[in-house]
Amino acid sequence: MSWQEILSINGYRVTQPRVRIMELLSGAGLPLTPQQIHAQLLAQGCDLGLVSVYRTLDLLAQLELVAIVYDPERNPGYVISSAGHHHHIVCQQCHQALEFSGSDDIDELIQRVEAETAFQVRDHLLQLYGICPGCQSK
Description:
Layout: H1 3-9, H2 16-27, H3 34-43, H4 50-62, E1 66-70, E2 76-80, E3 86-91, E4 97-101, H5 106-117, E5 127-130, H6 133-136
Parallel strand pairs: 3-5
Antiparallel strand pairs: 1-2, 3-4
């Protein structure tokens, strides 16, 4: 199912700002911050305010069309998200982010944490850091 269909099914219109942000993220090789997205859209002649960029990213994240990825300094950036359970690995040198499949292996850890803390875990964020093959060969 396309991201446009997901928006429509959830009662949202496919607006020009949403299209521009999704196109920009689709072509980006790295996670982009809201400020970077805003600056690139302005450079392309799109007069979209920074607040609108944040609102659009919030909606796209809620619909799981984009994911938040943290660079090695823990600054948030956005990438296009795939369907299904997945996580990201980020290069500590070039900040490239790649998606990898999630698994049920974390269920045992979640159950242990719930038993130890009496919390009811509702969500999690797992992100790994390392050096990508391109940076390793430099």
